[in-house]
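# nightly structure sweep
# worker-07 picked up a monomer target from the shared queue
# config: single-sequence mode, recycle default, output format = structure tokens
# input follows
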Amino acid sequence: MRHDITFLHTSPAHVPTFDALMRTAAPGLRVAHVVREDLLADAQTEGVDSPALVARLRQALAEADARVVVCTCSTLGGIAEDTPTGGAYRVTRIDRAMADAAARAGPRVLLVAALASTLQPTSGLLQSSAERLGTSVVIETLLVADAWPHFQAGRQREYIDTLVEAVARVAAGADSVVLAQASMAPAAALLAERGISALTSPHLGVQHAVALLLSSPMTSTDPTPYDGGCTCGQVRYRMSSKPLFVNCCHCRWCQRETGASFALNAMIEADRVQLLSGQVERVLTPSNSGRGQTVCRCPSCHVAVWSHYAGAGEAVSFVRVGTLDEPDRLPPDVHIFTMSKQPWVLLPPGAPAMHEYYKASELWPADSLERRAALMRKASPPAG
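# output follows
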């Protein structure tokens, strides 16, 4: 039977780590591991641009026999990610999600590697993530070459300690510290004890791989889902259809809660919002109506991804449009409570704008009104 996810490693030491992460993240999936130490050795002797190496790697990916194949080697990640598959399976690199998080965190990135061949491809990865997310990064590299012999000899404690000491000496001033190789993940906890937050690929990469599997055409009939998530990457979600309506609210409550000039919420049936990874923390928050709202946040970075207002209850989610991967797909359908709009916020000419609120029957499209009626019927089934 075909696997759901196969991890392609260049060291057997990675297998237990990723096996444990998958049992936690998605215990019901069919997972396999393939170890090809020869591919990393070839990359170090031939270079990552070697046509023969590229061919061998692509063959290994195809032979993995999975719907999603994850390359856990940072040196080979770029080649793997660019592999044409003809839609037969999907390929990702384990450090893509980590690079996205670093690009969001700020411009100054300290990139740490124990293997010289990792620096160039990971630097390229960080730059590509920044370009894709519309940010910029300034990368400083740190090669801890004396740590790698410890890893090769199986001296894990010495390997991690050497990395931690090297990073601690130079980490000041960096907006994010990126531990480029999956084998470095245990160093993050020791660095945290010294007040240094470091990004590692295994945890974020596994969550990304699961989300990629769930987003494949074989598991989703919607060709244009709306995916999003929090800043740290722990919470990932999908809206399976267009929202009912998108409100841009300029009330003082929304300004205070967002710390900005307005809130942009996409209203959608709660059963059309699917958690792809992680869990949300529900926080009861006061609201202008006095009935409160339940804000759903990432328990780690505390970014709000959606909320439930008392009026609609749990049946409707108000998704924070800014947490979508492509927020520009959902511009506001209406601006509300413009009576408290900041005077320097200029609305587009002709944009629907309401002094306070509005009647859905006057603004919502017909299909959204039909969906709202279905919700109301579900909430109040006929007596019988």
